[in-house]
Amino acid sequence: MTTPSVHHRRGRTTLVVERISEQLYSILCERITSGEYAPGSRLDPQAIASEFGVSRTPVRDTLARLEHDRLVETRPRSGTFVTRPTRQDVHEVCQLRKGLEWLATGVAAETMPLEQIADLRNEAVNALRAAEQGDYEPFFASDTRIHHDIVATTGNSRLITARESVEPFVYWLRVLGATGPHRLAGSTHRHLEILDAMAARNSAAAQEAAAIHLTEVEEWTLADMASHDIVT
After folding, report:
1. Among 197, 181, 102, 176, CA closest to 139
2. Rounded CA gap, 230 and 177, in Å?
3. What is the residue range of 78's domain?
Protein backbone atom coordinates (compact mmCIF):
# COMPACT_ATOMS: atom_id res chain seq x y z
CA MET A 1 0.00 0.00 0.00
CA THR A 2 1.54 3.32 -1.04
CA THR A 3 1.38 6.23 1.38
CA PRO A 4 1.22 9.61 -0.38
CA SER A 5 3.65 12.45 0.16
CA VAL A 6 2.76 14.85 2.95
CA HIS A 7 4.34 17.98 4.35
CA HIS A 8 4.84 18.50 8.09
CA ARG A 9 4.80 22.02 9.47
CA ARG A 10 4.37 23.21 13.07
CA GLY A 11 3.01 19.86 14.17
CA ARG A 12 0.29 19.66 11.53
CA THR A 13 0.29 17.38 8.49
CA THR A 14 -0.67 19.25 5.32
CA LEU A 15 -1.41 17.58 1.98
CA VAL A 16 0.65 19.05 -0.84
CA VAL A 17 -0.76 17.76 -4.14
CA GLU A 18 -4.07 18.18 -5.89
CA ARG A 19 -5.79 14.87 -5.29
CA ILE A 20 -6.61 15.47 -1.65
CA SER A 21 -9.29 12.80 -1.36
CA GLU A 22 -6.98 10.14 -2.82
CA GLN A 23 -4.21 11.03 -0.38
CA LEU A 24 -6.57 11.19 2.55
CA TYR A 25 -8.02 7.81 1.64
CA SER A 26 -4.55 6.25 1.45
CA ILE A 27 -3.50 7.70 4.80
CA LEU A 28 -6.66 6.73 6.70
CA CYS A 29 -6.74 3.31 5.05
CA GLU A 30 -3.13 2.78 6.15
CA ARG A 31 -3.97 3.82 9.71
CA ILE A 32 -6.86 1.36 9.85
CA THR A 33 -5.17 -1.60 8.20
CA SER A 34 -1.96 -1.13 10.19
CA GLY A 35 -3.93 -1.19 13.43
CA GLU A 36 -3.17 2.43 14.37
CA TYR A 37 -6.93 2.97 14.43
CA ALA A 38 -8.22 0.01 16.41
CA PRO A 39 -11.42 -1.87 15.50
CA GLY A 40 -14.38 -0.18 17.15
CA SER A 41 -12.65 3.20 17.57
CA ARG A 42 -14.59 6.35 16.65
CA LEU A 43 -13.38 8.63 13.85
CA ASP A 44 -13.98 12.36 14.32
CA PRO A 45 -14.44 14.03 10.90
CA GLN A 46 -13.73 17.49 12.30
CA ALA A 47 -10.52 16.32 13.96
CA ILE A 48 -9.41 14.69 10.70
CA ALA A 49 -10.18 17.86 8.73
CA SER A 50 -8.22 19.95 11.25
CA GLU A 51 -5.23 17.59 11.24
CA PHE A 52 -4.82 17.79 7.49
CA GLY A 53 -5.97 21.35 7.01
CA VAL A 54 -8.82 20.46 4.65
CA SER A 55 -12.56 21.08 4.52
CA ARG A 56 -15.14 18.54 5.63
CA THR A 57 -15.96 17.63 2.00
CA PRO A 58 -12.89 15.45 1.23
CA VAL A 59 -13.16 13.92 4.68
CA ARG A 60 -16.79 13.00 4.04
CA ASP A 61 -15.88 11.56 0.63
CA THR A 62 -13.02 9.56 2.12
CA LEU A 63 -15.15 8.11 4.90
CA ALA A 64 -17.79 7.14 2.36
CA ARG A 65 -15.15 5.28 0.35
CA LEU A 66 -13.83 3.54 3.45
CA GLU A 67 -17.38 2.53 4.29
CA HIS A 68 -17.77 1.10 0.79
CA ASP A 69 -14.62 -0.95 1.50
CA ARG A 70 -16.27 -2.02 4.80
CA LEU A 71 -13.39 -0.66 6.83
CA VAL A 72 -15.63 1.81 8.67
CA GLU A 73 -19.32 1.97 9.49
CA THR A 74 -21.65 4.88 10.20
CA ARG A 75 -24.11 4.48 13.04
CA PRO A 76 -27.13 6.82 13.09
CA ARG A 77 -26.79 9.55 15.73
CA SER A 78 -23.53 8.00 16.93
CA GLY A 79 -20.88 8.69 14.29
CA THR A 80 -18.36 6.79 12.20
CA PHE A 81 -16.41 3.89 13.66
CA VAL A 82 -13.69 1.53 12.51
CA THR A 83 -15.41 -1.76 11.70
CA ARG A 84 -15.07 -4.74 13.98
CA PRO A 85 -14.71 -7.61 11.48
CA THR A 86 -17.20 -10.44 11.80
CA ARG A 87 -16.91 -14.13 11.03
CA GLN A 88 -19.13 -13.46 8.02
CA ASP A 89 -16.68 -10.79 6.76
CA VAL A 90 -13.81 -13.24 6.93
CA HIS A 91 -15.86 -15.96 5.23
CA GLU A 92 -17.04 -13.72 2.41
CA VAL A 93 -13.58 -12.31 1.68
CA CYS A 94 -11.96 -15.75 1.69
CA GLN A 95 -14.76 -17.19 -0.45
CA LEU A 96 -14.30 -14.43 -3.02
CA ARG A 97 -10.54 -14.89 -3.00
CA LYS A 98 -10.90 -18.64 -3.47
CA GLY A 99 -13.01 -18.21 -6.59
CA LEU A 100 -10.79 -15.55 -8.14
CA GLU A 101 -7.44 -17.07 -7.20
CA TRP A 102 -8.39 -20.63 -8.15
CA LEU A 103 -8.98 -19.36 -11.69
CA ALA A 104 -5.89 -17.15 -11.67
CA THR A 105 -3.65 -19.96 -10.42
CA GLY A 106 -4.70 -22.18 -13.31
CA VAL A 107 -3.72 -19.47 -15.80
CA ALA A 108 -0.48 -18.62 -14.00
CA ALA A 109 0.55 -22.28 -13.90
CA GLU A 110 0.59 -22.25 -17.68
CA THR A 111 2.03 -18.81 -18.35
CA MET A 112 4.12 -17.38 -15.49
CA PRO A 113 7.85 -17.41 -16.40
CA LEU A 114 9.81 -20.08 -14.55
CA GLU A 115 12.33 -17.46 -13.38
CA GLN A 116 9.55 -15.50 -11.69
CA ILE A 117 8.20 -18.64 -10.01
CA ALA A 118 11.69 -19.47 -8.69
CA ASP A 119 12.13 -15.93 -7.38
CA LEU A 120 8.80 -16.07 -5.55
CA ARG A 121 9.77 -19.43 -4.06
CA ASN A 122 13.14 -18.19 -2.77
CA GLU A 123 11.50 -15.13 -1.26
CA ALA A 124 8.92 -17.29 0.53
CA VAL A 125 11.59 -19.54 2.05
CA ASN A 126 13.66 -16.58 3.25
CA ALA A 127 10.56 -14.89 4.64
CA LEU A 128 9.73 -17.92 6.78
CA ARG A 129 13.25 -17.92 8.20
CA ALA A 130 12.86 -14.26 9.13
CA ALA A 131 9.46 -14.94 10.73
CA GLU A 132 10.99 -17.69 12.86
CA GLN A 133 13.29 -14.99 14.25
CA GLY A 134 10.34 -12.73 15.05
CA ASP A 135 10.42 -10.53 11.93
CA TYR A 136 7.03 -10.90 10.23
CA GLU A 137 7.27 -8.15 7.64
CA PRO A 138 9.12 -10.26 5.02
CA PHE A 139 6.37 -12.89 5.30
CA PHE A 140 3.63 -10.29 4.80
CA ALA A 141 5.51 -8.89 1.79
CA SER A 142 6.09 -12.35 0.29
CA ASP A 143 2.49 -13.41 0.89
CA THR A 144 1.19 -10.25 -0.78
CA ARG A 145 3.52 -10.59 -3.75
CA ILE A 146 2.72 -14.25 -4.43
CA HIS A 147 -1.02 -13.65 -4.55
CA HIS A 148 -0.62 -10.39 -6.47
CA ASP A 149 1.69 -11.86 -9.11
CA ILE A 150 -0.51 -14.89 -9.67
CA VAL A 151 -3.57 -12.70 -10.28
CA ALA A 152 -1.61 -10.16 -12.35
CA THR A 153 -0.30 -12.92 -14.61
CA THR A 154 -3.81 -13.51 -15.95
CA GLY A 155 -3.82 -10.10 -17.64
CA ASN A 156 -7.58 -10.09 -16.97
CA SER A 157 -8.32 -6.50 -15.96
CA ARG A 158 -11.72 -7.31 -14.47
CA LEU A 159 -10.37 -10.18 -12.40
CA ILE A 160 -7.48 -8.00 -11.22
CA THR A 161 -9.85 -5.17 -10.25
CA ALA A 162 -12.12 -7.55 -8.36
CA ARG A 163 -9.18 -8.91 -6.37
CA GLU A 164 -7.83 -5.41 -5.68
CA SER A 165 -11.22 -4.35 -4.33
CA VAL A 166 -10.74 -6.52 -1.24
CA GLU A 167 -6.99 -6.00 -0.83
CA PRO A 168 -7.27 -3.41 1.98
CA PHE A 169 -9.55 -5.74 3.94
CA VAL A 170 -7.26 -8.71 3.26
CA TYR A 171 -4.23 -6.75 4.48
CA TRP A 172 -6.16 -5.61 7.55
CA LEU A 173 -7.19 -9.15 8.50
CA ARG A 174 -3.60 -10.27 8.05
CA VAL A 175 -2.26 -7.59 10.40
CA LEU A 176 -4.99 -8.16 12.99
CA GLY A 177 -4.51 -11.86 13.35
CA ALA A 178 -1.86 -13.46 11.18
CA THR A 179 1.06 -13.86 13.57
CA GLY A 180 0.38 -17.38 14.83
CA PRO A 181 3.39 -19.65 14.09
CA HIS A 182 1.08 -22.32 12.63
CA ARG A 183 -0.30 -19.72 10.22
CA LEU A 184 3.09 -18.61 8.93
CA ALA A 185 4.53 -22.11 8.51
CA GLY A 186 1.26 -23.45 7.11
CA SER A 187 0.88 -20.63 4.61
CA THR A 188 4.48 -20.99 3.48
CA HIS A 189 3.98 -24.75 2.99
CA ARG A 190 0.96 -24.08 0.77
CA HIS A 191 2.72 -21.29 -1.10
CA LEU A 192 5.59 -23.63 -1.96
CA GLU A 193 3.14 -26.36 -2.95
CA ILE A 194 1.38 -23.93 -5.31
CA LEU A 195 4.62 -22.60 -6.77
CA ASP A 196 6.16 -26.06 -7.24
CA ALA A 197 3.04 -27.23 -9.09
CA MET A 198 3.18 -24.09 -11.23
CA ALA A 199 6.85 -24.73 -11.99
CA ALA A 200 5.87 -28.25 -13.11
CA ARG A 201 3.10 -26.69 -15.26
CA ASN A 202 0.57 -28.79 -13.36
CA SER A 203 -2.47 -26.51 -13.36
CA ALA A 204 -4.80 -28.94 -11.57
CA ALA A 205 -2.39 -29.50 -8.67
CA ALA A 206 -1.69 -25.78 -8.36
CA GLN A 207 -5.40 -24.97 -8.29
CA GLU A 208 -6.12 -27.66 -5.71
CA ALA A 209 -3.37 -26.33 -3.45
CA ALA A 210 -4.67 -22.77 -3.89
CA ALA A 211 -8.21 -23.81 -2.90
CA ILE A 212 -6.96 -25.66 0.18
CA HIS A 213 -4.78 -22.68 1.08
CA LEU A 214 -7.70 -20.23 1.08
CA THR A 215 -9.80 -22.63 3.18
CA GLU A 216 -6.98 -22.84 5.70
CA VAL A 217 -6.48 -19.07 5.63
CA GLU A 218 -10.10 -18.61 6.67
CA GLU A 219 -9.78 -21.11 9.52
CA TRP A 220 -6.49 -19.69 10.78
CA THR A 221 -7.62 -16.08 10.51
CA LEU A 222 -10.74 -16.76 12.56
CA ALA A 223 -8.76 -18.67 15.18
CA ASP A 224 -6.04 -16.01 15.49
CA MET A 225 -8.53 -13.14 15.63
CA ALA A 226 -10.67 -14.93 18.21
CA SER A 227 -7.61 -15.41 20.38
CA HIS A 228 -7.11 -11.63 20.28
CA ASP A 229 -10.83 -11.04 20.99
CA ILE A 230 -11.22 -9.16 17.69
CA VAL A 231 -13.70 -11.06 15.52
CA THR A 232 -17.41 -10.94 16.38
Report:
1. 181
2. 8
3. 17-82
